[in-house]
Structure formats: structure tokens, C-alpha cells
Amino acid sequence: GAVVSQHPSRVICKSGTSVKIECRSLDFQATTMFWYRQFPKQSLMLMATSNEGSKATYEQGVEKDKFLINHASLTLSTLTVTSAHPEDSSFYICSAKWQNIQYFGAGTRLSVL
Amino acid sequence: KQEVTQIPAALSVPEGENLVLNCSFTDSAIYNLQWFRQDPGKGLTSLLLIQSSQREQTSGRLNASLDKSSGRSTLYIAASQPGDSATYLCAMRDANAGKSTFGDGTTLTVKP
């Protein structure tokens, strides 16, 4: 089956630093990738949708300059949390779409100290 | 503001039972509605996607329905199995604002 690899699975960083999360589709080409955020004991939130070679479409309320998304190839999308602060601590999940089905990465737990 | 509600928050059933999970939304101007399952340590799986023009979608033992007029979607699971134990999430995509809103999920436990 289609596999989406997300790296790292967990990252701890200091406040003010930037963190990059990678999302790769291992055995298929994904023209569309999604980034989600999940707060502890809360529901999921779609952050943005990215199409290969074009700018990401951000959901309402999501800061574009804070959460930089790059989808430079059909198998890789990255999310960079710039100047991270403790309130950015969360579980980030990526998803890649193939043949009209979404496949999800295992998620990245970000903790900002 | 779109609100998506899933009731109950938790459900426990014996193996073999048919069950229904509910998802309610406040704005009927939807683009699509999607059901997911989330397994601890295994991540998310997309189950079914219903477009605004559709009334239901089926995949194996799962059937999802959509009633825009009443603001409801249901996920029917037939002949439940312990492997169905997970948290089930619904997400509604707004047709106007282009925003997706998730419910808080129903945590299902199927006892052998």
C-alpha cells in the first residue's frame, strides 16, 4: 500500500528557533499534500493544502509566515515552523493524496521549550 | 462559525454489533464531509469522503450517509470487530469559506 513517511517523529527545540518537518510519499507521486495540527486532547485542524510546484493554500487563521510550506517535488513537502514558541507545541500530521485517497504520515510531536 | 459535533464522545459495544456514529454540523453549505479513524501510535486513516451532491458512500462494512438539510452525517459500521476500536473523526469542509472543521471524535471500543 501507499506509504507516507514523516520525519522527525519527535522534536524538541528552544523558543525562537525554526523547525523543519519533512513529509515524503515513498511509493507514489502526490500532487497534493496536506498539513494538519492536533492540540492535546483537542480535535484536528487542517492548516494548509499544497500542490506540487505552486504556493500552498492556507486555511483561515493560519499564519503563512509562521508556517512555511514547500512542496518542491511530487514526493516531498516540508513544513517549517519559524521562530517557534511554546504555543506552537503540538502534533503535526501530513497527508498525501494519491488516486483520490489520502494517506497519512505518523505525525511529528513538536515541543518548544 | 461552523461547528461540528460528534456524539457520543465514547462508545463501547460487544463484538458483532452493528453501530452508528453521529456527526452534526451547523452550516448546511458544505463542500464535502469526510470520516477518518485515528489509532494511537498508528496515525490517521481516511475512511470515506462524501461530496455535497452525494447522499452516501460505502466501503466494505462501512457506510457513511449525508443529510444536508438536517445537518447530519452518520457512519454505520456493520458486524463490528475488535480491530474497529479507534477514534472516529468527521470533518466538514465549508463550501463558502473553504475551511475544514473537525469534530472532537468518538472513541469506539469493541469488546471481544
What does this structure look like?
- Chain A is built from no helices and 11 strands.
- With 113 residues, chain A is mostly beta strands.
- In chain A, the strands form 2 sheets. In chain A, strands 2, 4, 5, 6, 9, 10 and 11 form a 7-stranded mixed beta sheet that branches.
- Chain A is globular and about 40 Å long.
- By secondary structure, chain B is an all-beta fold.
- In chain B, 0% of the residues lie in helices and 62% in strands.
- In chain B, strands 2, 4, 5, 9, 10 and 11 form a 6-stranded mixed beta sheet that branches. Chain B has a 5-stranded antiparallel beta sheet with strand order 1-3-8-7-6, with no helix packed on it.
- Chain B starts with a strand and ends with a strand.
- The model of chain B has no long low-confidence stretch (mean pLDDT 93).
List the main descriptive attributes of the protein structure presented here:
heterodimer, A: 113 residues, mainly beta, 7-stranded mixed beta sheet, 4-stranded antiparallel beta sheet, 0% helix, globular, B: 112 residues, 6-stranded mixed beta sheet, 5-stranded antiparallel beta sheet, 11 strands
